[in-house]
Design brief:
This protein folds into two domains: 90 residues; 231 residues, Bira Bifunctional Protein, Domain 2 (BirA Bifunctional Protein, domain 2). Helices cover 39% and strands 18% of the residues. The chain has eleven helices and nine strands. β6 and β7 form a beta hairpin. Bound molecules: phenylalanine (PHE). Phenylalanine binds next to β8 and β9. Belongs to the class-II aminoacyl-tRNA synthetase family. Phe-tRNA synthetase alpha subunit type 1 subfamily. Its EC number is 6.1.1.20. This is Phenylalanine--tRNA ligase alpha subunit. GO terms for molecular function: ATP binding; catalytic activity, acting on a protein; magnesium ion binding; phenylalanine-tRNA ligase activity; transferase activity; tRNA binding.
Length: 348
Amino acid sequence: MTLKDQLDKIRQERKEDIKDVVDLKKLDSLRVELLGKKGPITQALRGMRDLPADERPSFGQFANSVRDELQSAIETRRDELKKDMLNKQLEHEKIDVTLPGKPVAQGQPHVIQQIIDQIEDLFIGMGYQVLSGPEVEEDKYNFEMMNLPKDHPARDMQDTFYITKEILMRTQTSPMQARTLEKHDFSQGPLKMISPGVVYRRDTDDPTHSHQFHQVEGIVIDKHITMADLKGTLELVAHELFGDRFDIRLRPSYFPFTEPSVEADITCFNCGGKGCAVCKYTGWIEVLGAGMVHPNVLEMAGVDAEVYGGFAFGLGPDRFAMLKYGVDDIRNFYLNDIRFLTQFSKKG
Ligand code: PHE
């Protein structure tokens, strides 16, 4: 067989081999085998020097055309394989964009947080600052600076969890009164602040008691603040949260840190004031404690009680939520039962 016939045979056979290759790696090793330095074409071109001189050009041309042919066969096969791979991948990863999507479960603020948000919006609109304070609090702020010295009998009403003798879980948000009074610079203007947060009491949980619940403290201190300002402010809260037909009534009460002290009632949401079982036939429901900040509280925080004075209040968003939605057991707010909590959609 002449060199040319050998080459022609290689051309025909190996072209078939190329067509049969099914993966790119093998195709590449075949390429090296056929067209590389040790491949048959290179060999044949090397053997050319044994040919008579007049046959060399046509043989050279032929060898080059075989090389080109095999090369383009390899390229064609490579393109085919790549296309196959892509098609397989597309088939495999097919996405039907017309299928309905899976609904994404979207959360919402807890019902008590919704009430707090509403209260915050209202007070921010009136120029109050919103601050949060520590839940693990010093006895000094929770009691002493609120005019409840160590042996004060009113401490009994607010037993709590003690970390040490001097550090406890705060029983009220009122310590934020002392903390802000201490820092406030009255030359820059009045103090107007609300402070929402969690408080703790050593109470046994039952439908109306929880060892952990929420309060929103409020305090306004300036030069000419009166109880009428307090009442007007509380009325706004009632209207905002429940509606315009709700009124506020103040009753004398006692807190060590306010003088005079009041308890505020709101028109019974159930009977609208006529009297029913919910309001024990009074037409009113107690919702918060308030009063004019006691001079001792001001003085202990370094504020001149001869010049400055004002009101403070502490309301319970848990109680508000119970009244607003007719929830009869406070523990529902803390059990994290999603069926209960999702009833209070912000939209609804
Ligand atoms: N801190 C009081 C309580 O927890 C509520 C209150 C706050 C009363 C501010 C008067 C003024 O019962």
